[in-house]
Amino acid sequence: MDWLKTEYGSRLERQVESARKQVLKSQKPDHSADYNKNRPQAVSNFRDTWLKAMCSQLYYTLPRELRDMVYRYFVHGQRRLMTYSYDQHDIDEPGRLKLLNSPFHKQMAYWDKEVVGIHMFHEMVEAWYKCAVFKFEFMFDGDMYDYIGRDRWALGIVPATLIKQVTIMLSFNYDVEPCSAAQPSSPGSTARRHMHPTDSRRLDR
Known about the structure:
4 strands, 7 helices, single chain
């Protein structure tokens, strides 16, 4: 009798497990072609209705101090390190700044002026300048004063009044030649000297 109980018990367990899987399968969301086709439109509707209303309520309800706390969350706080040089990034176009240049950030609705509104967008840009750590490497061949002084967002913002953290990498390199080759070969020629000190300074305002 024990073997009979064991056999029927195992069969019953298999039937229960099969029924459980069928129930779970029926409860799963529809990932059919129609679902995937309509998903972008659903996301767009969400942006244009609920998200716009939420941003408007946030801006007109919370004081600036609390809004800045929300903005700092969106712009990733003070740990993000921004590296800029003219040969790597086109910093004349805000949309191509490193922070906003990844496919992930391009999809973020909170960087869309049409969604968050021009006033909230203005404050978020200010928070972005205040929170980011800007790193200028020694190969940076652009005019730093132009970078921190020009309003590339076209919002009437002077970056120098907002930027709080800057890291500047300085490097001093000279050519090396053996002492035997360091003798002037002709009048007027100059022996070249070499040293490799690299200085890294962090300037925090």
